[in-house]
Predict the 3D structure of the following.
Amino acid sequence: MSKTRRMGNIFARDGKSITLALDGHYFSTNTTGIDDTIGELPKMIESGLDAVLVTYGMAKTYANSFTGVGMLIRADLSTGVFDSSVPNTMGLVTVEDALKMGADGIISMTFPGAPNEATSHQIAWELAREADNWNMPFMCESLPIGYAVTSEESNSPKVIAAGARLGTELGADIIKTRFTGDAGDAEIVKRAQRPVLALGGPKTRHILDYFLFVKHCMDVGAKGVAVGRNITQDRHPSGVVAALNVIIHQNGTAEEAYETYRAY
């Protein structure tokens, strides 16, 4: 299968993607909602979900649930799952492993500027090279300074843009990274030179604020989102997906998205 065909399973025909991140078990014990959300996948796919990002174990456990949606498998995991800061990561899943599970893509993190950047870059580079050999898209999740936003520098558009470009230089076909909500985020997309998916998003008091953030990401050039808890830990996961579909695939406003969400 060609890489273009596999990319078409991750991104819709408009070149955009709503990707649901279900890989939290590799990095945290705060995984409430993940298993319950998988039960709603048929409704989410109907509402506009394009792809899921899963662990190797989930690809086995829920194989029947992932047949109608694009699937990427997470290749790396935390070496300290009880430490929410994710102190380090290790490479685990290979491209061949992912292909055997029917995956359309593979993903790993890299941490420019962090103490463990050398290890994470090596994991990303080896996956990118192996993925090219098999015509599989490689998504690089670039998280400058570390896993979480811990400083002004780690949430600077210029720093994030530099990290995104590093992911591209390591061989990524897709970049997943954080956005800050500032106009300078446009530099992230410009520097990446690859389709960029905005990761997660901030925890907000009101879901409309989250939709406003996603609309901002799309306005500065993102090709969609790769989001976990803002879907899995919402009372209406399918409603969030339907609302994101309004913004991402229908070019609607955050307010229109909110009205769609309220209808669920």
About this structure: The radius of gyration is 17 Å. The chain has a mean pLDDT of 96. The chain has one domain: 3-262.
